[in-house]
Each structure stands twice: as C-alpha cells, then as structure tokens.
Amino acid sequence: xxxxxxxxxxxxxxxxxxxxxxxxxxxxxxxxxxxxxxxxxxxxxxxxxxxxxxxxxxxxxxxxxxxxxxxxxxxxxxxxxxxxxxxxxxxxxxxxxxxxxxxxxxxxxxxxxxxxxxxxxxxxxxxxxxxxxxxxxxxxxxxxxxxxxxxxxxxxxxxxxxxxxxxxxxxxxxxxxxxxxxxxxxxxxxxxxxxxxxxxxxxxxxxxxxxxxxx
Length: 215
Known about the structure:
The protein is α+β, with helices and mostly antiparallel strands and 215 residues long. 23% of the residues lie in helices and 33% in strands. GO terms for molecular function: rRNA binding; structural constituent of ribosome.
C-alpha cells in the first residue's frame, strides 16, 4: 500500500479509475476502511464513489492508495496475458508497467477499446473455426495423386514431403500449410499412404496420398 499524500498541496498525478482506502482525520471525519473509486479529478479535488454514494474529497486531506485496474497490452509473468484486466499497486503500475509499455490504465475509453477488440477477436475466431471446419469436410477422405520419377530400384528420386502434398492440394483449390500435414517420414517409394491433416481449432482430416511412377 503506497502512501500518496499526507497533507500539503494537491498532487499532479491523475488518479481517475483508481481505488483508494481513506481513514478518519484528527476530528473524526472521514470513512475509515471504506473503499472508494475515483471517477473524476481536478487540480484540487477528487470526485469519488464510495459505499454511501458520490463524494468529493479534498486531496490535501490524505489518501492511501490500494490498487489500480490496468489492462495488459502484453503478456506479463505472474499477472496475466495480453488483454487481461488486473489490479496492481499504483507504484507497480506507474513505475514498471506503464514505462515498459506493458499495460494501460483501465479508463472508460480503454475499457471500451478492450471490449471492441474482444468482440472483433470473437468474430475472427468464429470465422476461422467455420473455415477450418469446411476445409476438414472437404479434405476428409480425399485422394491426392502424385506422379514422380522413380529409379530402377523402385525408389523415388526425391522423397515426397509435406510441402509436396500441400502444393498438390493447392492445385486442387485447397489451401493448407505444409506443417499441418503429419507425415511420420518422407515418402520414398510408390504406393498408397494415409496421411493425417491437423487444421486449426482442433479440426482434423485424413487423406490418401497415391504415389505413382511418372511415365
């Protein structure tokens, strides 16, 4: 818990969006151990929300900061992942997270942008899942013919790899990344091979690769 002020002139920091605990003054005024939330700040006053409703507090009376809500803009060990809304001490936020560009204060504007980003991400994820599902249906059970040069000994001059299969599928109008094609070993001989394709979002398909000698 960082002590921000103990009398004297108003501080220049912006505490909007922060939460504080403040105690009674020497005359017994104040709300001991009551949590308040700063919603607006001027040079001399903090407009806050507490249990009993809206209040206006003179900053020169002394306030003890509890924590601040921030939005992580990068993954931070022990705190969370990018986009998470977390509470940290004021000092940790201002002395480390903000200077290192790891987080921003959870103002109303920042929270709105976070919500918009989350909604856009959900739409994108839904689109990607739908696309991956359609590709899985299109691929499952498909036969892919590869005609290659074979030596007199019955061995391929160049082994068939995932890149070769991805290229063949691309010619058939199906786009997949070569790393999605799970070959235990490169194909070195003519024949038929069952190959698993691991798509995004957990979708899978099994295709049959038919390797023939090119005449």
